[in-house]
Amino acid sequence: MTYVRLHTLHRLSARFAKDDAGGTLVEFTLVLPLFLLLFFGLIDFGRLAFHYVVAEKAMHVATRVATVRPVACNAVNLPEFHLRPEDGGGGQNFGTRCNAAGNVCRPVADVSCPGALQNPTVAEIWPLIRGALPVGATPENLRFSYSYDPNLGFLGGPYVPVVTVELQNLSFQFVSPLSAFVALGGGTAVAGLGADIPYPPMSVSLPGEDLNQGEQG
Fold first, then answer.
1. Which parts of the sequence belong to the TadE-like domain (predicted)?
2. DSSP string, 99-166
């Protein structure tokens, strides 16, 4: 009887040792964290690339509108015409390009400000682009700048600033716990992996045109 039991136990042990039905489960458990890390990583970094491209297109639209509208900074009026540093100074005739010589046109101080819906130009631009901007964006995340460029304009002609619209102070939010997937796979959790990251600098510049409304210019 003892021999029969030992033989049966040996036979069952041999069968158990040869049984690999659960081997795939072990392999699946080892591979799953890596698969999840790659899968959700592709999703999140794809989202980052998508938002960047769409937001960049929105900046082109915002800048194009800003070049043909009044200044987006409240209580700021840019000069209407290019003038000499002093009346009659420089010995140049009206129509001379500003870059033809030194002191042909009077330099104008740069102007810069964050967007505010109280300004009519910002109020016009914001509805056109807000749907293309990252989640959480507000008009204050836009910065409008008007800078003097001596290569633009001529003496006695309209002042032509370089208009720049910049998207600033925004962060991209990951939706996947990438660091947790690394730890799940037996690795060391990477500090900062999957944390919010700031968007890279994004701005568009164009030479200004008529800074009044079309029917007023």
1. 22-64
2. TSSTTSS-----EEEE--TTSHHHHHHHHHHGGGSPTT--GGGEEEEEE--TTS-BTTSB--PEEEEE
